[in-house]
Each structure stands twice: as C-alpha cells, then as structure tokens.
Amino acid sequence: MAEKVLIYAGTTEGRLLAQELSRAHIACDVHVATEYGQMVMPELAGVKVCVGRLDVEEMRALLKKNGQNNYAAVVDATHPFATEVSANIRESTKGSGIPYLRLQRRMDDGICSIPENESMKERAGTVHVFADYESCVQALTDTSGNILLTTGSKELAVFAPLKERLFVRVLPGLESIGLCEKAGIRGKQILAMQGPFSEEMNLAMIHQFSIRYLVTKASGAHSGFQEKLAAAQKAGITACVIGKQEQEQGMSYAQVTETLSRLLGHTISGRPEVEISLIGIGMSAATLTQEAKRALEESDVVFGAERMLEVVENSKETYPFYLAKDILPVLRQKESQMDGQKLKVSILFSGDTGFYSGTEKIKTGLNKNNYKKIRIFPGISSVSYLSAATGIAWQDAKIISIHGKKDTAETRALVLDAIRHFPKTFLLVSGVEDVRRIGCWIEEEKLTQTRIIAGFQLSYDREKIRELSYEEAKNAKEEGLYTLLLCNENVQKRRLVPGMSDESFLRVVEGEKTVPMTKEEVRALSLCKLGLTEDAVVYDVGSGTGSIAVECATCSPGIRVYAIEQKATAQQLLRRNLEKFHLANVIPVDGKAPEILEPLEPPTHVFIGGSSGRLADILHVIWEKNPRTRVVVNAISLETVAQITELAAGKMQTEIIQVQVSRAKTVGTYHLMQAENPVYICVLTMA
Length: 687
What we know:
The chain is α/β, with parallel strands linked by helices. The protein folds into five domains: 4-106 and 252-264, NAD(P)-binding Rossmann-like Domain (Rossmann fold, 3-Layer(aba) Sandwich), CATH 3.40.50.720; 127-242, HUPs (Rossmann fold), CATH 3.40.50; 274-380, Cobalt-precorrin-4 Transmethylase, domain 1, CATH 3.40.1010; 388-487, Tetrapyrrole methylase, C-terminal domain (Methyltransferase, Cobalt-precorrin-4 Transmethylase, Domain 2), CATH 3.30.950.10; 502-686, Vaccinia Virus protein VP39 (Rossmann fold, 3-Layer(aba) Sandwich), CATH 3.40.50.
C-alpha cells in the first residue's frame, strides 16, 4: 500500500495538515492553485508543493503510477466556497480505491442578522446576510460610502458596478493583483496582504479608508471572520455577509488525522500547539505591562477570577476559573475545536506572578498535563505600589501574607513577631476583617506606638492611602482590597542563642508552691543539642513551667510547640508564662504522654523533661509518627539513664553527655561555689 498522501490545499488547515504529516515522517504532495499558495507553504521534509489548477482528468492521472495507487488517501482541504474544485476532486477519486477525505473547515453559525429584504440604509451598524454575491451588490447599489471588500479576487467582476467605492483586500500575489487591475481597481484601492487579521487591524483599515460597509464571506472559525464582524460593530458600520453555500458533510481536522493514522499505521497528532501566558495584571488594568497586554490581546481564551477578567475586552472568550482542575477540561475542549490551529491562552493573576500568587501551582498542574509552552509575565505587586505611593522602600522590610488565613494563634504570632522585630512590615490581608483584627492585636499586646498605613483599593478609582490609629483600625468598616504597612521604631532585638535567665520565668503558683524547671545552663545546652530548624514542630513533654517551650517558640514565629503537661498546677503556670512572653505559637496540651500525643501532628523535634517511667512507650509513638524525629532527654536518675542505654542496644543512635553546673553563692565576703545536681543530656535518633 502506498504511504503517501495527496493534499489539495487552499486553507490554513491544509497547510497545518502538511506540517503535521512532515513531523510524522509521512510523505505528501500538496497542490495549490496559485504561486502565492506555494509561497506561504513552508519548506517541509517529505513535502512536495505543486502549483496550478487541474481539471478532473489531470487530477485522476495523479492517482496512479505504473497501474498502482500512488497515494494512501486524498485530502480535500480547499476553501468552503471552492465548490467546483471540491466536486472535481471528489469525481477524480471515484473508482480509484483511494479514500477521499473532505477536511471541512468549522464554520461560525448563529450570526445575528437583519432580513435581506430590509434596507441597509435603515439599519446601519448591523449585519446583513446575503445568499450570493449578486444580491449583495444589488443591496449596496442603493447606498453610498466606501466599501471594504474582503472576499478575495475571484469574484471582483461581480462588484465592477461599485468599483469607484471599493477598497479590496486580496492576497499579495501577482495573480490577485492582476485580477484587480483587470476589474479596473488600481493603486490605493488594492490592499495586498496575508491574513487572517485581528480586530484591531480591521478597525484600523476601516478608519484609514473611511469605510461604511464591510463585505465578507461566512468563512470559517479560523479565517478572521469573527474579528471582521467585531471591528464593524465597534466602528458602527454595516457588515455584509455572503452566506455559505450548500456543502457536503466533511470531516473535522481531528477526524482526518485519526483516519490517516489508521490508514497509514502511523500516529499523527491532531492536537494543536498550545501557548499559555500566565499574566500578573498588577493592581488593575492601569498597571498591566505593555508586554502582558500584547499577550492578552493575542489570546483566544482567557481564564481568571471575575475581578481579573474586568481587564479583558468584551470580544474575548473568558472563563472565571483560576484552578487547574477547572481550567484543564475547558482547554481540552478548545483544543478539539482548533482544527490544528495554534491555541493561545491567558490565565490572569492579581499583582505579581511570583509574589504570593497561584502561578507556580497552576504551572505545575499544566506541566503535569503535558502543556510545556508556558510563559510568565510579571506584574506590579501591591507591596511595590504601596511602597512607591508612600515613599517607604521595601527592600529591607518584612513581607508577610495572612490572605486567606484564619484567625489562628499561629497567624497572630506571625504578625506580632514581625511588628516587634522589624521596623517595617508589609502585610497582605484578606479584607477589612483582617484590618480590624490587627488593630485589636496591637492594642492587646500594647504595641500602640505602631504606625498603621492602609492602602485601600490601590490603583482603582476609590484608592485611599491613609495612616490609621489602632482604634481606627479596630473599627474599620469599608469593604474592599487592603494592603498594610506597619512601622515600629522601637523594635526589640531578637535573641540569637538560647539561655534565658531562670528569673525570667514565673515559678510560684498557689502561694508558695514551686514548679520544677530546667535550669538555664542545662536548658541552653539541651536546646543546642535539639538543633531546631525553621518551621519545626516541637513536643515539650513534661513542660512544667514551659521554659523549654518558651525558648523554642521565641526562636522563630514559624516554629509550633506543643507543651504537654499532666499536672494541674504546672498547667496553670505554663499558661501564665505564655501570656507573659506574648507567645501564640505554643499550644498547651493537658494530659499524659504517650496517649495524649496520638491526635497531634507529627513532630520534627522532641524534648522530654519528664516521662513518668514511660520513656519507651513515648519514643515508640513519636517515631511511629515521624521516624526522623530528633529527641533530647534530660535525665537525673540512674534508672532513666539505664533505660536509655538499654534502648540504645536496639535500632537507635545515642549521644550522652553529663553536665554538672556550679554557681557562685555569696557568703559574707566570700564567693562559694554551690553545685547543682548532675544532669544527663541524651540525644536519641533512629538508626
């Protein structure tokens, strides 16, 4: 069986099919009617381009070579209006045994039009549909004003009575220009260029040549037909549409590629090339970059939250989706409608694509679904905008976001830590409710010297930038988009090493009862051995006064500490110490380990100051949750040390050091050293 395909091309779809066959290493002969058709066909491996019009016998002669079929299939990809040519191609294949495939360009239906018998003078700025060229010419004869004729050069003779009013857009080939001159159309009346054209290009021509009527064929979905109608509507002129003639049923681009794949035993992709632009629109349409604007204008389909889609012109097809799970089904549907044409897609994001944006997540989802041609266009973030508006630089500021976060202890700790330790904090919030919460937090923590600069509806008509007192923030009512700048000139220096003094902590509860506490030198060494990291999840088992929990939590607001304590008096004191140090990233857990540990999230680090004889059970639960957890145990009794050494004989690595601290005590004029009990600091990890 022959493994070559014959394509009669006259449309973009025919050219795209030839390119697809070349990529699949399938030879094909492409016949085009004019030299211009040859010129626009790129040079492709395995593709031979022939020029000239053929009659039925000449077409039939191509199909056989030495009595054998020369082609596996004949594809008719001529223009929908080339009905005579299509009839000849179909006739030439009869009795040959070679499949005839009509690649039918998808047509745009549903044109909202005015009845043909109603005068165009009475309904300017509308769409009129005509059955043929002659009836269109007759209707135009009763009008005045320039006409932009976009139906090509073959039917120019029909429009000869209107030639003084015509501006004809034809292909830039010698044959087309020759037909224009033959019809008496010359000079500036000839607009020789290759389409399809954008709405903007059509609009520019309408204005340039003072066009009153635009004449077009009801071509196909990718011929620029809709762009012509949109331009005519925007310019307020009348569009005259020559209705499509009766055509036989054909096959879609995808159906043709599937059929050829089956006939030839090769995989031929019918999937179009998809270009995706991930666009940060900045604060609004006013801050959209020129490069991003161009990408958006060239898009066939646009996705984004409803507020984002406000920047898109009405002629674009838009979908209010911003999650991959919603976007992907629409993309696949659109691909099936493109007939091999490139599909250009834009997905819009607020602000900047690299700043608390959904861009990265969307890109990952698209890549997983084999969408690789993705370009990201950055935008102007609200932080950049507010920084410029206030004249306060952001390069040395703390930048955090609580957008979409609940009013949790962790969120509160994050904001308050930034205020305490940074002179400038830019804060992204969800809305006015967050502004009110921040005002309350500032008051409760007595950080009332903090300046609150609120940017409201930045770049929009309602934009306001004003400084609020914490009282005004607490009572803010205006709904909308906010970005905050929090300034504190009296920042606290963050302690970089552990070892807070014992006197820093409350120890006495219920009159004279003292709760046990890990001493500061032992605490400092234990925390060094614990080796905390950013975003650590810490269990402090047998928390007592909470000194270990407090030191861990003050290292970073991103650390979460679960302070586990079973004794009621210690639980009470623990909470008082947390209040004293304004810590919201410590969660008190009342109960006995290991049972109380079960519902907690897996830890990364664990400190055990008291195990009540259940060390092995506690370690089992911890390492079940996370085998990589690093554990530090403080032991005083030899029994606990013996238990640890016994455990070390199993699948566990240990490091044991003994620490004995002596403190100077003043007795009269002398300083005498007073020894504390020796403490074993044991580091345990799974082998």
